[in-house]
């Protein structure tokens, strides 16, 4: 502890000040501080310190009374922070030292015993893992909310048929619900990836010390149990230097943003006048400062736009880790802003897109008008011919010529006469035209994963059941959390 004289001389107030003869340069203090952003770890830091202190007391490394005093002090600090009374001081660098300094003000020299058998290196790794774990659980819930919104719209419009696109050219009719469920499939993979990432995140680094382990008979398992970690780290050097779990989480965020951005792009296109497949809710659209008639899909555009910054954070993290020698290096402090912003942005985009999807009003009549336009059921005629025994390549050629003929005559496939059909190929009976309606085209795709209504109805049921099971899983985790 620094004495009065040291303080008066502006040195020694640092937790690590013992060997220093000079105060830190103000520019260095400003350059090296992390409290301006890592204050967000306060809950995790306090929870980990409380578990650590309890373990120290139980193991007889400090007395039970000292542990009790420390824990009571930490709990008071938690209340101070929650009430907004705590003053975060850049002079104390980071969240760990800010809390420790306040603890010393509250309970005196006993506060100095908290850092026994611990380093900020295993402490910060523990805090970040706890933060990531909570972020993962939150992201999972929010991504389920978006799944629910998509499923809700799919269930509300089970019969709406729209043109499906490839190359953004009308390709084949599909159920609108089928299109929405494609996004549910993407979000389902994200949910799964988050769970996978959670398993590797949920390992306790405390006990690793600075890098080598600690010289006290600690009980990492007890700390792991208290903090609901599944295990404690196997290698102390890896424990303090590993940030793979941060990269994994930000990479799942990046992929989630890819999915949200693609959905955003679809919604933007659907809301355009030329398509008119959905009407956006006023509460989820914005206007123009000059054009009074405008209603813009800004929520979707910003989702698409914010995707880039999440990718940027992933790139920053990978670059940060590349070439770092073992073990802890101060570079690692740079993980936090990237992590926090990637998670914040993904959470916000999930919430915004959920609202957008929930409130948009599909326009099935508009979809129907274009569902069979641009000869999007031509494949049905080719399939009909192939089913009569004509090799598919020849069938394709025959129908291709019919399309050209219709284009020249300015008519649709449905307007072909029996004579024109028969002239194109003797196998083309008049009943072939029953196949070129949108309804017949979707009904024909009666294969697993296909857009036939009965298949989509089943897929919808499966998605609903999966969603309910995930919600159940999430509520179990909440029960687990509240115990820690
Ligand atoms: N603020 C630091 C970080 O975020 C905490 C660990 C500091 N450790 C050290 N050896 N300087 O990485």
Topology:
Elements: H1 4-8, H2 26-32, H3 35-38, H4 42-58, H5 64-82, H6 95-107, H7 120-156, E1 161-166, E2 169-175, H8 176-201, E3 203-204, H9 220-226, E4 231-232, H10 236-241, H11 244-271, E5 278-279, H12 298-321, H13 335-359, E6 361-362, H14 364-371, H15 378-387, H16 392-409, H17 418-424, H18 438-444, H19 453-482
The structure holds arginine (ARG).
Arginine is lined by residues 34, 38, 94, 120-121, 124, 328, 330, 332-333.
Reported by name, the CATH topology of the largest domain is Fumarase C, Chain A, domain 2
Q: Which strand order does the major sheet show? A: 1-2
CATH class call of the largest domain: Mainly Alpha
Report the bound ligands by name, code or SMILES. Answer: arginine
Q: Considering DSSP H and I runs of 4 or more, what fraction of the residues is helical? A: 55-70%
Let me know the average pLDDT. Answer: 95
Query: Which spans have pLDDT < 50 for at least 5 consecutive residues?
Result: 1-11
Question: First CA to last CA: what distance?
Answer: 32 Å
The CATH architecture of the largest domain would be: Up-down Bundle
Beta content comes to under 5%
Radius of gyration: 31 Å
How would a crystallographer describe the biggest sheet? 2 strands, antiparallel
């Amino acid at each position: 502890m620094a004495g009065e004289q040291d303080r008066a001389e502006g040195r020694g107030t640092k937790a690590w000040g013992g060997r220093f003869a000079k105060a830190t340069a103000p520019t260095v203090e400003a350059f090296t501080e992390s409290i301006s952003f890592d204050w967000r770890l306060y809950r995790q830091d306090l929870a980990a310190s409380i578990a650590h202190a309890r373990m120290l007391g139980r193991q007889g490394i400090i007395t039970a009374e000292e542990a009790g005093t420390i824990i009571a002090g930490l709990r008071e600090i938690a209340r101070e922070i929650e009430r907004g009374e705590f003053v975060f001081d850049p002079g104390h660098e980071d969240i760990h030292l800010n809390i420790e300094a306040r603890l010393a003000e509250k309970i005196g020299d006993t506060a100095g015993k908290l850092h026994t058998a611990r380093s900020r290196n295993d402490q910060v790794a523990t805090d970040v893992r706890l933060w990531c774990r909570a972020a993962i659980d939150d992201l999972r819930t929010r991504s389920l909310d978006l799944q629910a919104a998509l499923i809700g719209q799919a269930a509300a419009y089970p019969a709406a048929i729209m043109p499906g696109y490839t190359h953004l050219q009308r390709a084949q009719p599909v159920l609108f619900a089928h299109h929405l469920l494609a996004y549910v499939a993407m979000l389902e993979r994200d949910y799964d990836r988050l769970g996978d990432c959670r398993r590797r995140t949920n390992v306790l680094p405390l006990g690793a010390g600075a890098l080598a382990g600690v010289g006290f008979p600690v009980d990492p398992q007890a700390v792991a149990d208290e903090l609901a970690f599944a295990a404690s780290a196997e290698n102390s050097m890896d424990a303090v230097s590993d940030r793979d779990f941060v990269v994994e989480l930000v990479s799942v965020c990046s992929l989630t943003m890819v999915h949200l951005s693609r959905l955003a792009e679809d919604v933007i296109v659907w809301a355009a006048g030329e398509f008119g497949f959905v009407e956006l809710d006023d509460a989820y659209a914005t206007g123009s400062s000059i054009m009074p008639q405008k209603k813009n899909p800004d929520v979707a555009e910003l989702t698409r736009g914010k995707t880039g910054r999440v990718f940027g954070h992933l790139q920053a993290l990978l670059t940060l880790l590349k070439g770092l020698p073992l073990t802890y290096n101060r570079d690692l402090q740079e993980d936090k802003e990237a992590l926090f912003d990637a998670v914040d942005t993904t959470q916000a985009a999930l919430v915004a897109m959920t609202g957008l999807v929930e409130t948009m009003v599909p326009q099935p009549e508009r979809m129907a008008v274009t569902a069979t336009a641009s000869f999007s059921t031509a494949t049905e005629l080719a399939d009909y011919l192939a089913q009569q025994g004509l090799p598919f390549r020849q069938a394709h050629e025959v129908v291709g010529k019919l399309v050209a003929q219709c284009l020249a005559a300015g008519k649709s496939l449905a307007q072909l006469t029996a004579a024109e059909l028969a002239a194109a190929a003797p196998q083309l009976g008049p009943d072939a035209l029953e196949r070129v309606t949108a309804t017949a085209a979707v009904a024909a795709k009666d294969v697993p994963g296909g857009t036939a209504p009965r298949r989509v109805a089943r897929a919808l049921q499966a998605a609903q059941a999966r969603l309910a099971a995930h919600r159940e899983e999430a509520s179990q985790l909440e029960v687990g959390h509240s115990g820690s």
